[in-house]
Amino acid sequence: MQERLGVTFRQIEHLERALRHRSIAADSVFDSNERMEFLGDSVVGLVVSEMLFCLYPHYTEGDLAKSKAYVVSETALADAAQTLGLEEFVVMSSGEAASGGRRRRSILADAFEAIVAAIFLDRGMMQARKFVRAALTQAIRSAANDTHRGDFKSSLQEHTQAFSRKTPLYVIVSEIGQEHDKTFTAQAVVGETVIGIGSGKSKKEAEQAAARNALENLPAHFPQSLAEAVPKTTETLAPDASLSQS
């Protein structure tokens, strides 16, 4: 595991604690990685904020906030965890593993944050920063490119991840009309809640309509969201030519 992380721990106990899921810590939650998740979340947030601030000087505060919301989301952190193969090393109960725990994205994202905390505690901020930068470079690029911020589905995902760390799913609930002239209706769903509905002449168009409807009603589902959730333009910010690792 240390080889994959590119970090040699002085106190291996830090790494062991970071990989211990609460399902195996029967005696006390203090034996699990939950407290380390808390610390790691702050370290990841600081490093990502610093990266975005330095790499994209033309971004407004709102642009930076939206990009950060994606990079620190459950989706991006779980992807980084899978790239590192953390699912092989998280220690959990047999029941949790049997129920798909090693593939559960929330567990993977939490483990990633806990690993960052372990590196911070054991080797300091410089090493933690180096690790986060390397692990989240692809997420930073995704946050800056056109496909991430170019449509209603992308914008809705940014907001739901920022306020609930959940990614909206889209369900086609009806198809009406002849084969050559169908109208599709889609629902945007977060968790078990339908937050938007829309129709279109294709599944993609229906999903976009559902995402737009969800954005228009976002304050009802996420009161802390901003009123300007619905994008007023299709223009996007051009990403930097390169992403420095320095």
Structure overview:
- With 246 residues, the protein is mainly α.
- The chain has 2 domains: 2-146, Ribonuclease iii, N-terminal Endonuclease Domain, Chain A, CATH 1.10.1520; 150-229, Double Stranded RNA Binding Domain.
- Helix content is 54%, strand content 10%.
- The protein contains 13 helices and 3 strands.
- It has a 3-stranded antiparallel β-sheet, covered by helices on one side.
- Helix 3 packs across helix 8 and helix 4 (61-71) crosses helix 11 (152-164).
- The protein is globular.
- The two termini are 25 Å apart.
- Residues 146-150 and 225-246 have low confidence and may be disordered.
Radius of gyration from CA coordinates: 20 Å
Q: H/E element string? A: HHHHHHHHHHHEEEHH
The strand line-up of the biggest sheet is 1-2-3
Residue runs with pLDDT of under 50 for 5 or more positions: 146-150, 225-246
Please give the alpha-carbon distance between the first and last residues: 25 Å
Q: Work out the helicity level.
A: 40-55%
The major beta sheet can be summarized as: 3 strands, antiparallel
Instruction: Give the total of beta strands.
Output: 3
Could you tell me the mean pLDDT? 82
CATH level-1 class of the largest domain:
Mainly Alpha
β content, as a range? 5-15%
**The CATH topology of the largest domain:** Ribonuclease iii, N-terminal Endonuclease Domain, Chain A
Name of the CATH homologous superfamily of the largest domain: Ribonuclease III domain
As for the number of domains, it is 2
Q: Which CATH architecture of the largest domain would you pick?
A: Orthogonal Bundle
Continuous helix count: 13
Q: Helix- and strand-based class?
A: mainly alpha
